[in-house]
Each structure stands twice: as structure tokens, then as C-alpha cells.
User: Which sequence fits this backbone?
């Protein structure tokens, strides 16, 4: 009898353990499904329903296909009632700014986009704010610096001192010019200036179209100088002083987007290969040829750049 009683007790214990693990497995599965359902292709949330999407654009702006893809999904998501773009960037490459600008224009064609500038919103950082229906900045925000820059380094003096010379056989006089190992010729400077002028014209057209100002006024403002948020409101580059709270109130008053809707941040998923490729690209660059680790034409503001 004692053996039979022990047997029954052991069976009950085993059943309780099995029941516990089964319940735990079900709860875990339900939780994973809930998270998967709440994740809107790059937008992190725990439930479906109307919401306001938010994306941060900070640091140096480079072309980012994953970020553009996430924005396009937001544009197609009927639950996303608006997009708040938080900008804190000195700018970046012209292509990075242009590509993000055009993608944000796609979003703005389908739902309200509001830009909120932090400490910096200059050069390409200002460019990506232009698709917004309303641009907010703090009084002390540094913005503007509308323009394009092509940087190169002249290392010929250093090479002469250390007795190093580099020769080149080229198919034409402007091939691989400018470069840090040769003096810039007048022809190379003229050709490079034409590139800068062309991209400046593109930037200027964005400002005139999106800010509703004439080209003469836009050109006066777009001489490369920076402005405080207060100055930018006064000259028409920014709409109002404020932050995210003011943006939410404006969305409710002007676009009927309820102020109590939840906010979901757009999280760009990065694969390990992406980070390794980025780290490798930084390691392969040199101060002489690629200052600020930016390739090609750049639209960026920094006090040290002259």
C-alpha cells in the first residue's frame, strides 16, 4: 500500500510539472505572436490600432535603403495617422539627404509629416525637414547652412618635403581630379565647381518649392550661413518654435490626429553584416582623402570646415 501511495504522489507531481511547462509554452507562444502582430515592418508596438509614427534622424546622414523601406511601409500603413520626424543632424552626403527627402515626400503625400529639430538641423539635416507640412525648432536650434560642399586635401607640400612623387597616366586632363596628390588646376576647379553648382541648384529648388518663397529670397538665405531657430522662424525657413508636444497639439488642431494616440518609434533592424561592413568602410578611409568619412558631394555644417 505504501508503494502504491508513493507511486500516485509521484504521478501527481509529474502531471503538475507537465501542466506548468505546457502553460508556460502556450503563454510564450502567445506573447511571441502578439509581438509579431504588433510589429509593423520596422515599427515597434504591442498592439494594432491607430498610432503616430516617429523616426529619429541624427548624426551624419548617409543613404540608408533600410530606413527608406521602413518609411515606405509607414506610408502604406492606414493605422499610422501621422509621422513625427525628430532631427538632430549636421547634414551628410547629398545623395543621403536627397534620397531621404524624396522618400519623405512619398509619406507626406499620404499623411501628415511634422519635423521637430533638436540642437542641429543643418545642410542635409535641413533638407530632410523640407517635406514636412510643419517644421518646428527650438529657439536655440542651429539650422540653415543651405549649400553643397566638395572637399579635397592638398598633400603636395608634404610629399615634396619627404621626397615622394606620384605619377599618373590618364585618359583625359580631368580624370581623377581633384585628388590630394596633385595641385588643383583651373580646369579641375571649374569642373568641380560645376558639380557643386548643379547640386546647389537642386537644394535651392527644394527650398523654394517646399517653403513657398521666391528664388531670390531663397538664394539670399541659402548662402551657407546658419540661423538660430528664432531667426529661421522670422525668415520663413521654419514654421514655429516648439518641440514634440507642440507638434502633437498642431497635429490635433490642424490634422485631426488625436493627441492621445500612442507613439511608435521606427526601429531599423540591422544585420551583423551591416555593422561589419560599416566598420570596415570607416577603417578603410583616410584623413587625406575622405574627411568626415563622407564620400562625394556633401551637404554638412561644422564649425571647423572653411
Assistant:
Amino acid at each position: 500500500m505504501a508503494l502504491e501511495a508513493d507511486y500516485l504522489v509521484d504521478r501527481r507531481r509529474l502531471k503538475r510539472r507537465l501542466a506548468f511547462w505546457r502553460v508556460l509554452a502556450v503563454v510564450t507562444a502567445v506573447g511571441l505572436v502578439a509581438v509579431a502582430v504588433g510589429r509593423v515592418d520596422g515599427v515597434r508596438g504591442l498592439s494594432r490600432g491607430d498610432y503616430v509614427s516617429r523616426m529619429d534622424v541624427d548624426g551624419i546622414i548617409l543613404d540608408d535603403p533600410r530606413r527608406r523601406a521602413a518609411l515606405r511601409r509607414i506610408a502604406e500603413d492606414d493605422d499610422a495617422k501621422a509621422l513625427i520626424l525628430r532631427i538632430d543632424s549636421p547634414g551628410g552626403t547629398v545623395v543621403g539627404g536627397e534620397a531621404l527627402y524624396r522618400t519623405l515626400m512619398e509619406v507626406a503625400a499620404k499623411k501628415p509629416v511634422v519635423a521637430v529639430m533638436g540642437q542641429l538641423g543643418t545642410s542635409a539635416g535641413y533638407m530632410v525637414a523640407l517635406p514636412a507640412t510643419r517644421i518646428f525648432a527650438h529657439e536655440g536650434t542651429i539650422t540653415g547652412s543651405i549649400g553643397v560642399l566638395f572637399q579635397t586635401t592638398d598633400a603636395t607640400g608634404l610629399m615634396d618635403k619627404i621626397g615622394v612623387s606620384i605619377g599618373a597616366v590618364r585618359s583625359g586632363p580631368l580624370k581623377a581630379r581633384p585628388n590630394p596628390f596633385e595641385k588643383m588646376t583651373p580646369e579641375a576647379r571649374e569642373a568641380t565647381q560645376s558639380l557643386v553648382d548643379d547640386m546647389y541648384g537642386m537644394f535651392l529648388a527644394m527650398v523654394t518649392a517646399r517653403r513657398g518663397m521666391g528664388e531670390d529670397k531663397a538664394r539670399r538665405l541659402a548662402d551657407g550661413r546658419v540661423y538660430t531657430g528664432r531667426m529661421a522662424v522670422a525668415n520663413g525657413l521654419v514654421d514655429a518654435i516648439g518641440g514634440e508636444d507642440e507638434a502633437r497639439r498642431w497635429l490635433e488642431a490642424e490634422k485631426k490626429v488625436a493627441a492621445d494616440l500612442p507613439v511608435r518609434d521606427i526601429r531599423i533592424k540591422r544585420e551583423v553584416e551591416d555593422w561589419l561592413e560599416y566598420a570596415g568602410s570607416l577603417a578603410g578611409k583616410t584623413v587625406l582623402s575622405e574627411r568626415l568619412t563622407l564620400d562625394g558631394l556633401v551637404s554638412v555644417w561644422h564649425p571647423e570646415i572653411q
